[in-house]
Structures are given as C-alpha cells and as structure tokens.
Amino acid sequence: FLERIKLLFIPICLQMLHESIFPHTFLQILEYKSQNVSTADVFFPSSSFFFPSSDLLPAMDGDTKTMTFLQEVVDILLAYIVESFDRETKVIDFHYPNELLQMNNWELQDEPATLDDILISCRATLKYAIKTAHPRYFNQLSTGLDMVGLAADWLTSTANTNMFTYEVAPVFVLLEYVSLKKMREIIGWPDGRGDGIFSPGGAISNMYAMLLARFKMFPEVKEKGMSSVPRLVAFTSEHSHFSIKKGAAALGIGTESVISLGFVLVQGFVPFFVSATAGTTVYGAFDPLIAISDICKKYNIWMHVDGAWGGSLLMSRRHRWKLDGVERANSVTWNPHKMMSVPLQCSALLVREEGLMQNCNQMHACYLFQQDKHYDLSYDTGDKALQCGRHVDIFKLWLMWRAKGTIGFEAQIDKCLELSEYLYNKIKDREGYEMVFDGKPQHTNVCFWYLPPGIRYMEDKEEKKKHLHKVAPVIKARMMEYGTTMVSYQPQGDKVNFFRMVISNPAATFQDIDFLIEEIERLGQDL
Amino acid sequence: FLERIKLLFIPICLQMLHESIFPHTFLQILEYKSQNVSTADVFFPSSSFFFPSSDLLPAMDGDTKTMTFLQEVVDILLAYIVESFDRETKVIDFHYPNELLQMNNWELQDEPATLDDILISCRATLKYAIKTAHPRYFNQLSTGLDMVGLAADWLTSTANTNMFTYEVAPVFVLLEYVSLKKMREIIGWPDGRGDGIFSPGGAISNMYAMLLARFKMFPEVKEKGMSSVPRLVAFTSEHSHFSIKKGAAALGIGTESVISLGFVLVQGFVPFFVSATAGTTVYGAFDPLIAISDICKKYNIWMHVDGAWGGSLLMSRRHRWKLDGVERANSVTWNPHKMMSVPLQCSALLVREEGLMQNCNQMHACYLFQQDKHYDLSYDTGDKALQCGRHVDIFKLWLMWRAKGTIGFEAQIDKCLELSEYLYNKIKDREGYEMVFDGKPQHTNVCFWYLPPGIRYMEDKEEKKKHLHKVAPVIKARMMEYGTTMVSYQPQGDKVNFFRMVISNPAATFQDIDFLIEEIERLGQDL
C-alpha cells in the first residue's frame, strides 16, 4: 500500500511543488492518514498531555514558586561571581572530555526533573566551567566579566526579543541606532553618518563587509551570482584573521583568491576588497591604514578594517593613533566583547555608505517588513543582515557605556595596555625568555618563548627547536591541570610553539602578571 | 611634513604588506611619532586614567556594592516577569520612534553615570519593551518566556564564554554534543549519528546547509570559488523562508537560481540543493518530505529540510507524522527558540554526514585549534562553522529539556496546536471572517481576514478588496496603541493583508484566544 502511495505521489508532488504545497490535496491527506501511527514512539515512553511540575508560569501558579526558583539560581550565580574574582579559586577544574561525560548525568531524559535537580545541574555546570572572569585567565581575546554588562545581559534575556523590527524591539533598535552612530563618530565619519549592524561575531562582520564590497562593485551578483562577474580577488595582511578566507570560501570567491602576501595585480582578476587588520589576532599588529587607503582609493577598491581586536583602541587618546586612517575605510569591524569586556557576543560592523546594507541584503519579507506599518520604517533594520532573527547584543554595550562613560572605557583599555607593557619590560631581557617579534607590542599581545634551563644552552639549533616546540603545550596542559592560570600558545609559520599572552580583563593587576611568569617557570623548569 | 611621510610611505607600505606588517619598521615608528597628537580629543573632554565608581570588581571592593547592585537589577527583572504574565498589563507601551527617542536620555556620554542612573535606565528600557512573555502576545513565531530557560540564560551570561573549543567551554561543548545527538535520534538517523551545530538563527542554519550541499558536490569551490563549478540551481517550496534566497545571494549563486515554483531542469544548470519546508512561516504548511526525498535521491541532490518552525513537531507523537521522511534529509534546520519556547536564540543545524562540516568550513586557525593539545580534539567544534566566536546557545535548551523531559515539550507543543485548532474552529464559520486557505491548519498558523460590518456586504469586489487590504494594518496599529494584544498581518501574492495568528506561548489559554477575537472585532468594527 505504501509503495502504491509513493508511485501515485511523485508526479502529483511535482504538481504540488509547482502550485505551492498548501492547501491540502487529496493525496496529502491520504498520506497523512496512512502514516498516522508514528515511528517515533521509542522517544516517548509515557502518555501525552502531562504537564511537568517544573513548567513555571507566574500567571498560573502565583509567584512564590517561580520567584523562589529564580532567586535560588541568582544566589548560585552571585556565589560563582565572587568565587570567579578570587585568586585563591582555580581558573578551571579540568577534566578530559570522556571523564567529564562520566562525572555527571548529562543525558536528556523523557521524564521531567525536579527543580532541585535543576539547581544541581546549574551548580555542576558552573563547577566545571572556565572562570573567564578570573584575574588570571588570559586565554582568549575576550576575558573578564563586567558587572553592569552582566546585569544588562540578564535584562536582555528577560526581555527575550528579536532585533528584526522596531515593532518587537523598540528600545533596543533605538539603542543600536544611538550606539552605532556614536561608534561612527569615534571612527571619524562626518557627523557619525553611515550605517551598521551588530552581528554574531567578528567573522560574520567581516563576511558581511566582503559581501557589501562585492555588491557595491557588481550589484547584479545578488540576482545572477558569481557567473555574472569577473574573477575577483581580495587582499589582506599576512597575519589577518582566518575569517577573511572563510568569508571568501562561503561567498563563492574561493580561498585562493585571497592574497595575503601583498598587492599583486593578477591578470584577469578584479580586486574588489582589501581587509586591513587593526590588531592581528596573534601579534596584535596594526596595518598602516593611511597608506592602504591611498592604494584602495587609487584602484577603487573597498577598504575594510578588521578592528575586531584593535578597534577598541579608538576609545583611547593614548593609543588611537595606531588606527589613523580608519576614517578612510568603507567598513570597520569592531568587537566590544573583546577589549571593552562587554559580555559575549557583541560585534559591530560599521559601514560608511548609507543604504548599501539594505540594498545588498534585503529580500522584503512581507511577514516582517510590511510597508503599511504605522511608524517610520527606517527603524526596521532586520533586512540589513543575512540573518532573519537577530539576538539583542546592544543593551550590554549601551548600559556599560552609560556606566563607565567613554572615559571609563578609555581608562580600562589604557590599563590593559600598561599591563602588557609591564610584562614586555619584565621578560624582554630576562633569562630564559625570547621574544617572538622585536619591539614593544602595539596591542596587549606579548608573544614569547620560555626556554627551560635544560634546553636553554643546547647547541644543536634543530634539536633545541624541536624541544622548544613541546614546551608551551606541556606548560599549558599543566596550567589547566593545576587550574592556576590559562594563557594561549601556538606555532606560526616556521616559528615553533610560543606563548601568546593577551590582556583584556580589567581585573588583572601587575601582581597577576608577576604570577604568570612565576607559574610558567614553576611548571616548566623540569622540561 | 605629513605629505612627505605619505610620499615615503606608500612604496614602503607595499613592501611591508609583502613582508607582513610586523615587526615595526622605521617608517611605521616615524609615522606613529608624527601623529601622536590624536585628532580624537573631541570625544574625550576630561583626563585619562580615571576609574568611574561604577567599575564594580568584586575582588577589589569586597562584594557588598556589587552584590547589592546585581540584586537590585534582579528585583527589577522579577517584577517585570510577574507583570509580563499578568493579563491586566499592557503587552506594549507603544511610542513612535521619534517620540521614544525624546522620552528618555538614551545618548551615550563621556562621563560615567551613577549606579542609580543605571537602575533607572534598566527600568526605562523595560517600560518600553514588548512583553514577549505576555499570554496575549502572538506577534512572532517566538513568544513566551520559560522560567528554566531564562535561568539558564542568566547562567550562560555569567559563565561568559565561547563555544569554539572544549578548552574554554568544556561543559557547554559536551551539552551541545549530547543535545545534537538526541535531536538526530529524534529525526531518525541511525544511533543519532551525524553532525551539527547551533548557529545564530534559522537563516544562518539554512545558509550553512546550502554551503555544505555545494561543498559536497564540488569540494573545489572552497579554494577556487564559483568559477570552478557549473551554474548551480536550488529548489525550494513557493512559501519557503526568504533566507534561502539570502543564502543564495551571499554564496554567489544568485537569487535567480533559486527556483521556487517547481522542479524544472534548466539546460546547463546543475541542481545541487532542495530546501523543503517543514512549517512555512506564514501558512505553517509542510512539504511532502518522502516524495521530495525520492526526487533528491534520483537526481543526487542534497535534501535540506527547513524545519526552523515545524521541526519541533518531531517532539509530538500526535503531530510528528507531518515530518515523515525527515530522516531521509541530508540536513535539517530546527529552531528550539520557536515552538519550544527556548529563549532567543537557539537554532540547530543537524547534518547526516559526519565530518563534512569540518571539511567544508575549517581553516585550521593555529591560535585556537592547536593540534598538540592534551585532550581529544574532536571536541574543538569551532571550525565547523563560518563563525569564529560562537555564543553559548545550548544551555537554555539543555536545562529546559532536563526540566520538562521530552514529554514536557510534547505536552507544550500539543497544547499550542490545540489552541490553534480552537481558534480555527471558532472563526471558520463565524460571520465576518474568511480563512486564507482551506482546511485545518497543519501547524499553529491560522491565517484569516476579518471583514468589518461596513465592508462585509460590499458588492464591488475590487473596492471590497481595496478596503479589506487596509483593515489589518489599522487594527494592528490600534492593538499596539491600546497595548492589549499583538498579532501579525501581511499580504501574500494576490491576497490582500490578512492576519497570521501563531501560537507558541505555553502561557496562552482558550480565554486568550477568545479575547483576541473580541479585540479584533472591537478595534475593527468601525472600519
């Protein structure tokens, strides 16, 4: 019988696809009936229409139970926060994946758990989490935990809405408008004019920029695809972030068309995009933006500045000269969740030309962007992005900015750069250390090798290199096992594994830097 | 002097780009020095290195101040939650954008605000926010506020980490692993095998699926771009989500290569992707997946199921037959933030083939995905996505699943579908209503026109249609001004504006449906 249905079904299905699927056709109804006994019973051992006790609805139960539960969770979180900032606490209670899978029952069940079980799950989750707020956690570009930012994120979760229209996020849409304008002013675009959007991270912001650049040069690409345009090529600095290549792969440009070594005009390829980096991920280096902008202008190429990491230095009078020329860019990625310690995620793409984002990405979904709404439709910003629903990432930045003021962010950034200079000065001539690049760091990145006494004086260069390559991974593994601190390491080109220290946590102090050095030496002395 | 620098700078800059920017060159240092007086002084009226009082660091101040502040915010949030579920409260306190911009000082300042000001800002933000938890808020596919989900999101903010590696998110990476496996089991893939990732929304999940399909058929596209592959064409149902077109535009395929009317083989174009919809955005219709899978199999085309809206029906024994055949798909988008009421955002892309996501998207960033780490590297999942940093979206789904069990989600989904059937039965023969499509809704979408008495008996069909087109926008505007309820409307093809009612809020009751009908009639009777 099922076979007969299928035979009948295929030609009619083609017809249905043609005419649109809905409304029901005879055959669809037939099919539904014939398959009404679900194959999924294995997932549902007990009967339907049962409401578990943990379905808390303040409107139904009165509030006591719900409020008590939420307050208990908050108490757990407050205790975790105090602990996270305490240097006596471990940064991490490390376990290997298979171990951790065994240490708790993480499986999803058919039956509901009690609220007490839920609280236990919350505690277990935090017990094995990394304390990213810990003053000795230096592992990523995003560290620290700002209390106002955290409060703002809690509020965002509670408001639980979506950025696509003013209709459902009136305040947040306005705050995005206000904040993007302020950021454009700081970039230096006249009167803060231009466009922008908050996106889910720097990689997506960079990809959006590349998308805009291509659309600007070849608007027909939107409808006709890459077959309508010449072979494109994008340029970027050697140590630029891998998201530039990811973007090129996704957009159908291909990673081979991302030239990272220099500016070479390849016959038959049209250069459309230059991504200059303001603060590379590993070295924290800044490309010379003014010079790059001259070239972009000469060849009429979109100039993007990937300031995901370094963009925040625009907030500092002492350091913003490193981005001189940024005001000449067509677009800028700037992630406040990195150097400004805004809770994850908060990444902005700023665009100089107004209207382009809308033209590039809009599809006019009529269920969201009705043209006969009763308010100013320019505040329905959802069609500027590839995303449909967009998480509210703005409130935490906005509230922190209110709390600190521009000068508060500046002080925080300056302090982190001062700490990294302190680290640099401390180790540059210290026995057993070698710097990966010469000169003072431009950002808070300090890249260095630690050479344990045992290999410090090895004569065979190759042998020494081979040993040195293993030092950082072992020290890092020990750091995690002891849980005392975390710092990243990596190889780069022909350079063997080195430590990349970064500081973005305003809770860190000079003493924490001292601690890091002592800890590396303690954990590495026997290697 | 600056002119001379520039002249000197350009050729050397080319050289620097070629050799990589870092380490410093003489010229860079020269440039930095010459521009050490920043042009940005306008943004920073007062002196540097000033720490505002609102920089709360539990480790520095002791905890009283921080904890008091956070508790005060929590109290504001708890009060807001109680209010949100109260039917006597307005869903929205609506103001036009320009009005709202005036009603509060939303501007960002140079100077810090006091913590009291911050609390005032929190209250103001919530005052003008949409109460998306309100039992009479029906405006989007994502409504409601689950208390366990909310608690989980607060914990996520507090843990403030990133999904790219096990190293920095051990528990969350494991919970993603556990939950994706469970979702694949429910889809029906053997032993829950396969792959997947949580992404920032259904549009990105759909684009990721398209990216995988293209890579599967033409892996060389990653390096060589679209010029290395034939002209591609994708198929999708007529009422599919606009993200399929957005994806095609972004990936360089072009929107004209998305065929939404049926399955036509176009000379010289290679079909590579079919996106079937399980629960269309407006009508809630389900494509016949079994029939579509037969076609995909025959022509060797990637079958994607966009179940962003309808995927959750897999949790219901009563309704999952509507997705029969989903187990034949190559990839499935499923957004728990819609029908399962998980706080925004929570969207999963599930993929049948293991390893493909990694191959398609990986760029081996050596600062994140070191190959000599001391744990099982398969848990470093970050390279599977286009994103670098990835927000932790898993914990709220996981904790809710624990709290409700599979049967709790089932009960919640069944209830919402029952409410929509109640609405359908109530209005299908009621005077003044016309249904937009025939037959019982397949999902909770009920699409209908309300004809006020004044136009109910108009004889001139065109005149009537013209009037009717204006009815829904006016009623909707009045709903927002009164703040009593919110429901979406839209035109579709040659159909004039109609209401699209959707129910995903488990707090809604039969009485709320009655209220909606009464309210539409009250607000529309004079039109």
TrEMBL record, chains A, B:
One of its GO terms (biological process) is gamma-aminobutyrate shunt. Its cofactor is pyridoxal 5'-phosphate. It is an enzyme of class 4 (lyase). It is a peripheral membrane protein; Lipid-anchor. The modification N6-(pyridoxal phosphate)lysine is found at K338. Its main location: cytoplasm. Its EC number is 4.1.1.15. Keywords: Cell membrane, Cell projection, Cytoplasm, Cytoplasmic vesicle, Decarboxylase, Golgi apparatus, Lipoprotein, Lyase, Membrane, Neurotransmitter biosynthesis, Palmitate, Phosphoprotein, Pyridoxal phosphate, Synapse. It is found in: Cytoplasm, Cytosol; Cytoplasmic vesicle; Golgi apparatus membrane; Presynaptic cell membrane. GO terms for molecular function: glutamate decarboxylase activity; pyridoxal phosphate binding. SUPFAM superfamilies: PLP-dependent transferases. GO terms for cellular component: cytoplasmic vesicle; cytosol; Golgi membrane; presynaptic membrane. Homodimer. Belongs to the group II decarboxylase family. Catalyzes the production of GABA. This is Glutamate decarboxylase 2. The lineage of its organism: Eukaryota, Metazoa, Chordata, Craniata, Vertebrata.
